[in-house]
Design goal:
CATH class: Mainly Alpha
Oligomer: single chain
Number of helices: 4
CATH topology: Four Helix Bundle (Hemerythrin (Met), subunit A)
Strand content: under 5%
Largest sheet: 2 strands, antiparallel
Shape: globular
Radius of gyration: 17 Å
Distance between the termini: 18 Å
Order of helices and strands: HHEEHH
CATH architecture: Up-down Bundle
């Protein structure tokens, strides 16, 4: 991906990394590797990363269905003692974190002179129009 797209890729890779950390490695104990922004070469590759992350979230929702208040205790890198978190907290935190990065991306696009589409309320028909990937071919 060109130099102009590098900041976008950096922010875009933060969302799947947060999901892989909290939902993947913490809740599901997967060995999900981090997405390296330098490894993402085009938009379709980033879409593939998000499609894989969607599958991870679906797995998490299936695993913890009806058990969102259950406590999960695991070792974390930032402290000596185990952390205890609920699936509900992990999901809520992950969604909030993703919105934070969406805001950064929109702000960066505006600062670079682009006017992004309104992403605050996308209806299913809006989303379907964006899922028709003209770049694939």
């Amino acid at each position: 991906m060109g130099t102009a797209g590098a900041p976008f890729v950096t922010f875009m890779s933060m969302s799947p990394n947060a999901i892989k950390a909290g939902i993947g490695r913490f809740a599901l104990e997967t060995g999900e590797p981090k997405v390296k922004a330098s490894d993402v070469t085009d938009v379709n590759e980033m879409r593939t990363i998000f499609e894989r992350v969607d599958q991870l979230v679906f797995r998490f929702l299936d695993e913890y269905d009806e058990r969102f208040d259950e406590k999960i205790s695991r070792k974390v890198s930032w402290q000596e003692e185990e952390e205890e978190l609920s699936p509900l907290w992990l999901l809520t935190h992950t969604i909030t974190h993703e919105f934070h990065h969406k805001g950064q991306i929109v702000t960066l696009a505006r600062a670079l002179g682009y006017e992004p589409v309104d992403t605050d309320l996308l209806t299913p028909s809006d989303i379907n129009c964006y899922l028709d990937y003209p770049e694939k071919g």
